[in-house]
Design brief:
This protein has 155 residues and is of the alpha/beta class. The chain is built from five helices and five strands. Helix 2 packs parallel to helix 3. The protein starts with a strand and ends in a 9-residue tail after the last helix.
Length: 155
């Protein structure tokens, strides 16, 4: 189950995806999908994990265990689950909205919820896309290719 993801387009036409998974099985499935994408001649995603929305904010503010910007590329896309421990996807979107525009990372929601209200609220809070799980890896990679990263790259 995807919990939260940070995705970054790499330099020189190489895309890297930093995807956050709670379960090792989910990480393994994502890596298998990434390998299939690479075999198809597309960019190879790399994976990175944080456990919850609070850690995502720590990552973005370079605090706590995420204080080394050299080791942690600035993301071009966040993938958020609505129901994460500590702080859910709605709360992370609200936090992003309070950031200066150059620091706002595009965010997409990955949720098990098919509720119309959840979709509307997410998009209203600025999510660029709302996915209902399971989501094919190719859809996420296509989204990564279409979003505009923040004007100010931190990494």
């Amino acid at each position: 189950q995807v919990e939260l993801a940070l995705m970054r387009a790499g330099q020189h036409d190489v895309a890297r995806a930093y995807v956050l998974y709670r379960e090792e099985r989910a990480r393994a499935r994502a890596q298998e999908k990434a390998a299939r994408v690479a075999e198809a001649g597309r960019a190879t995603p790399a994976l990175h994990v944080v456990e919850n929305g609070l850690h995502a904010i720590d990552y973005l503010t370079r605090t706590g265990r995420f204080c080394d910007p050299a080791a942690l590329p600035w993301p071009d896309l966040l993938l958020l689950d609505l129901k994460m421990p500590g702080m859910g996807g709605f709360e992370v979107l609200e936090w992003l909205n309070r950031r200066p525009p150059v620091e706002r990372v595009p965010a997409a929601i990955l949720s098990g919820s098919e509720l119309h209200e959840d979709r509307v609220r997410s998009l209203g809070l600025g999510a660029v896309r709302y996915f209902v799980k399971p989501v094919p890896a190719m859809e996420i990679l296509q989204l990564l290719q279409t979003v505009d990263p923040p004007a100010s790259s931190k990494g």
